């Protein structure tokens, strides 16, 4: 039999009056559910998501189902959390007509199994209009990033808050005390970052930007609208085969398929909204292009807003609009114009 104060340090209890979980050998658990719900609501409610394009705000954490617990086993902290979140948001286009669109953001699986950068945030809107489509795209990209960042703060706060008191002081040989702290487990942020693969880096969120263009054409609004929606006329200024089903949901292809997408909204002689992409862009990534056509006394004014352009493609996209659309339309149809 070992003498008092000697032997396996896991069994030395003389300096722990309550003799609780000596040297952190036994499994202990702390419930973090109530704290997590309050923290998630604090981080997400009234969250503002704004840019030059749009101003949106999370108005309510409508659903927060799940659990969070922290375990200590042999001095090692294990964080377990799994949440299903439903958020309500509303927003408007910054320089629009003030129309407010409402929608939801669904986070189906906030858990330790998923990296924050890979976290799914599904965006929906309660309206079907060009404004709603623009805001949906804005929330799907910029809103998703902002929500992911806030949820990352929740995870960091969870680990900081619930590491306190979970690992108790213990004594090792030679009388040197090991102080409490967070164990270096596979769940620590630092270790997780070290374990990131190259595929994780490639899967980071695509950074996008937008274009705001304005042109004046010496033609009627009807003539300009036809130039973009009658396949035979589109063929003239693109100088190549055209596929075009001019209706909401109809597809279009131009320039040998290098530009393709679908029509979202068509208001004859006034507005055209398209989901639009270049073939060279990341797979399945579309921008939203809105043509606003205004008939003036002796000319037609056209405003073009394009959101969701990959940042690396911004300058090329601007140049292509000038070269392959505006210059060609003016030259082929005689819509001589001046730029404002």
UniProtKB/TrEMBL annotation:
InterPro entries to which the protein is assigned, alphabetical: Aha1, AHSA1-like_N, ASHA1/2-like_C, START-like_dom_sf
Organism: Dryococelus australis
Lineage top rank: taxon: Eukaryota
Family statement: Belongs to the AHA1 family.
Lineage: Eukaryota, Metazoa, Ecdysozoa, Arthropoda, Hexapoda
Domain Activator of Hsp90 ATPase AHSA1-like N-terminal, first and last residues per copy: 29-164
Record-linked SUPFAM superfamilies: Activator of Hsp90 ATPase, Aha1, Bet v1-like
Coiled-coil ranges from the UniProt annotation: none
Protein's recorded name: Activator of Hsp90 ATPase AHSA1-like N-terminal domain-containing protein
């Amino acid at each position: 039999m070992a003498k008092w104060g000697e032997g396996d340090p896991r069994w030395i209890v003389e300096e722990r009056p309550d003799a609780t979980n000596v040297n952190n050998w036994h499994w202990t658990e702390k419930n973090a559910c109530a704290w997590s719900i309050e923290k998630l609501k604090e981080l997400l409610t009234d969250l503002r998501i704004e840019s030059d394009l749009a101003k949106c705000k999370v108005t309510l954490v409508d659903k927060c189902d799940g659990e969070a617990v922290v375990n200590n086993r042999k001095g090692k902290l294990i964080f377990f959390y799994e949440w299903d979140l439903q958020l309500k948001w509303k927003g408007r286009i910054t320089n629009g007509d003030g129309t407010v669109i409402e929608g939801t953001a669904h986070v189906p699986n906030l858990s330790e199994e998923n990296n924050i950068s890979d976290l799914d945030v599904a965006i929906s809107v309660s309206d079907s209009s060009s404004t709603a489509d623009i805001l949906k795209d804005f929330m799907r990209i910029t809103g998703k990033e902002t929500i992911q960042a806030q949820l990352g703060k929740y995870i960091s706060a969870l680990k900081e808050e619930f590491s306190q008191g979970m690992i108790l002081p213990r004594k090792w040989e030679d009388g040197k005390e090991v102080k409490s702290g967070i164990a270096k487990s596979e769940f620590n942020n630092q270790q997780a970052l070290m374990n990131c693969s190259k595929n994780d880096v490639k899967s980071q969120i695509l950074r996008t930007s937008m274009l705001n263009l304005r042109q004046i054409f010496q033609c009627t609004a009807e003539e300009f609208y036809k130039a973009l929606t009658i396949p035979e006329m589109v063929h003239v200024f693109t100088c190549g085969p055209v596929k075009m089903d001019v209706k909401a949901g109809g597809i279009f292809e131009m320039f040998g398929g290098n530009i393709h997408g679908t029509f979202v909204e068509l208001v004859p002689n006034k507005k055209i909204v398209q989901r639009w992409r270049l073939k060279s862009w990341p797979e399945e990534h579309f921008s939203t292009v809105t043509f606003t056509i205004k008939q003036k006394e002796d000319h037609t004014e056209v405003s073009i807003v394009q959101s969701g352009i990959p940042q690396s493609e911004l300058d090329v996209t601007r140049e292509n609009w000038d070269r392959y659309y505006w210059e060609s339309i003016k030259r082929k149809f005689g819509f001589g114009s001046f730029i404002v």
